[in-house]
Specification:
By secondary structure, the chain is an alpha/beta fold. It has one domain: Rossmann fold (3-Layer(aba) Sandwich), CATH 3.40.50.300. Helix content is about 35%, strand content about 30%. A six-stranded mixed β-sheet has the order 6-7-8-3-9-10, sandwiched between helices. The protein has a four-stranded antiparallel β-sheet with strand order 2-1-4-5, with helices on one face. The radius of gyration is 18 Å and the shape is globular. It binds adenosine-5'-diphosphate and magnesium ion. Adenosine-5'-diphosphate binds next to strand 1, strand 2 and helix 1. The site of adenosine-5'-diphosphate (ADP) has 12 residues, from strand 1, strand 2 and helix 1.
Length: about 230
Amino acid sequence: MAIISLRHVHRHFQVGEQLVRALDDVSLEVEAGDYLSIMGPSGSGKSTLLNLIGLLDRASSGRYFLDGEDVTALDDARLAATRNRTIGFVFQSFHLVPRLTAAENVELPLMLAGVPLAKRHQRVRQALAALGLEDRAHHKPDQLSGGQRQRVAIARATIMEPRVLLADEPTGNLDRKSGAEVVRVLEDLNARGITLIVVTHDAALGERARRRLHMLDGRIQAEHGQGG
Ligand code: ADP
Ligand code: MG
């Protein structure tokens, strides 16, 4: 069974007189553990698609099944609960909380989930160590390099052990070397079973994925690689 199943999904935005078809009849099946990239020109709907898969947004029409559950009609509270349990999200600009340390940023989802303090601290220590950040635990985001910030963001996104990890231009603000490190971390997670979907402008990064979707004008215009 597919972990992600989109059926004839549309996402329209009314902007003044104009109807923007950000997603225009997108159907997509993703198997658990797969690795996909989404490429395409600016404005083609990549972020809209990723936000929708990540339950940060809702379809205007069409159906979305996540891990077999029809999430199309869930109310906001149940949508948020499903998102917290199932989805990790990594953004181009990291989205760390600036006044919290690296460790506190990673701890946030555990706090929201009500995990007890001792357990939280143990898991945060392990997560930071796994990403080579043990000696940066008490640094604030502005005391970290871009690559370190993104690794903290990945630790935060995966601390609840989600089955799906979504990354929107995760290397877009990084130099080549830091970008390569972040890609290695994401691919390690995929090798250990997480379903990985990466939106990217970087053709070299996009080419690494097993399935490669190309978007244009709100549609999946082509797919390369296996599956589909
Ligand atoms: P991409 O990530 O491929 O650059 P987006 O998914 O961000 O593209 O945007 C797809 C289209 O939808 C664009 O034309 C964009 O202007 C429009 N769009 C995205 N979000 C909104 C919004 N909240 N309101 C109105 N239009 C939007
Ligand atoms: Mg985008």
